[in-house]
Write a structure and sequence with these properties.
The longest helix is centred in the N-terminal third of the chain and has 20 residues, at 10-29. Helix content is 34%, strand content 15%. The protein has one domain (10-73). The chain has helices at residues 10-29, 53-63; strands at residues 37-41, 47-50, 69-73. It has 2 helices and 3 strands; from the N terminus they run αββαβ. The termini are far apart. It is an alpha+beta fold.
Length: 91
């Protein structure tokens, strides 16, 4: 099986996904889905919400095979965090 090549660069996928999220999705999902992940098809604007990026992406791909997907964690600036947060009163 051959993997499909993305239609967009990583930067373009991120730009398109963030734009769709801010313009069309954020206001609809933020109040009741904080911490969940939104997977967005950057071509159509279709999206699905799940507890994690893998589930959201798999469900979206089942509906839209071949979709270029961008994921956003609702209510957070980033999808993932690496390392520990600084302890209060230090750093």
């Amino acid at each position: 099986m051959t993997a499909e090549q993305p239609r967009y660069s990583a930067e373009e996928t991120a730009r398109r996904g963030d734009d769709i999220y801010e313009r069309e999705i954020r206001a609809l999902v933020e109040a009741t889905n904080r911490g969940k992940v939104v997977a967005i098809d950057v071509d159509s604007g279709a999206y699905l919400i799940a507890e994690n990026a893998l589930a959201a992406s798999e469900w979206l791909l089942a509906e839209r095979p071949g979709a270029d997907i961008w994921c956003v964690r609702v209510g957070h600036r980033s999808l993932h965090r690496i390392g520990m947060l600084p302890v209060q009163g230090t750093a």
